[in-house]
Every structure is written in structure tokens, then in C-alpha cells.
């Protein structure tokens, strides 16, 4: 199951069916199955509160991923996405909003698969994976 929700904002994902198919195909291409993933779209302030409450971080971020997986190769989790941050990042990086949104969506999925971006080498690896999967949309 793959679901998209909006929390404190009015947001509709562009091309939801195509996006679902792409996310499922991305997981399968990495040897995973989606058991249950919720993407929750929200504001900067909403995600900041989650960041403070659960991660003890006091800064804005574009995404927070909670891994609830219990079985190997079965992805389950909640992925919170700040639409405010995605918009700002798209502007800063001079890319389209939907391109940046898809990058963030796949970024959260990669986290559930065990990929990390905790140092420069891992960040580079993760960015390459994001690029690879973005081409398949």
C-alpha cells in the first residue's frame, strides 16, 4: 500500500497514479516490496515540530523518514515532506518543483531501503541513485 496525505496544507500530488507506479517500480528494481508507505505532505513549521519532538533537531528540513519495517525487503514507513522546503530548494537549485519533489520522494524511499547520506561519500552515492531513478519516471 502506498498512500499520499496532506497534513496542515492544501496540496495535491501531480500525477499520483504514475508516481505510485514509479515508486513501486523503484522499490522492485532495488529488490524491495512496498508493504505500506505513507507520504505526508506538510509545511515547514509542521515538519520542524516533528524534527524537534522526535529527532531533537531544531532546524528546517525537506524530509523526515520513519522506518517501520519489520521484515527484510518489505518497506513500511512514514515519510514527511515539507512542500515549503521543496519549493525553496527547487528555486535554489534552479530545477522545476515537480523534479525536486520527485527527488525528495525517492530520497525517502532510499532511506527506507537502508541508504544513508550521513557523510559526503554516502551523500554522493545516494544522489547518484536518486538521479538514476529520476530518469525512469
Tell me what the structure shows.
Single strand-specific metallo-endoribonuclease involved in late-stage 70S ribosome quality control and in maturation of the 3' terminus of the 16S rRNA. InterPro entries: MetalPrtase_cat_dom_sf_prd, YbeY, YbeY_CS. The protein has helices at residues 16-29, 44-55, 83-93, 97-112, 120-134, and strands at 2-6, 33-42, 63-67, 74-82. With 137 residues, it is of the alpha/beta class. It has a single domain, classed as Metalloproteases ("zincins"), catalytic domain (Collagenase (Catalytic Domain)). Strands 1-2-4-3 form a four-stranded mixed β-sheet, with helices on both faces. Helix 1 (16-29) packs parallel to helix 4 (97-112). The longest helix has 16 residues, at 97-112. The two termini are 19 Å apart. The model has no long low-confidence stretch (mean pLDDT 96).
Main-sheet strand order equals: 1-2-4-3
Could you name the ranges where pLDDT drops below 50 across 5 or more consecutive residues? none
Q: What structural category do the secondary elements indicate?
A: alpha/beta
**How many separate domains make up the residues?**
1
Q: Can you name the CATH architecture?
A: 3-Layer(aba) Sandwich
Residues in helices, as a percent range: 40-55%
Shape: globular
Task: Estimate the strand proportion.
Answer: 15-25%
CATH fold field value: Collagenase (Catalytic Domain)
Report, as a whole number of angstroms, the end-to-end distance. 19 Å
Q: Superfamily at the CATH H level? A: Metalloproteases ("zincins"), catalytic domain
SSE pattern:
EHEHEEHHH
Which CATH top level class fits? Alpha Beta
Largest sheet: 4 strands, mixed
Radius of gyration: 14 Å
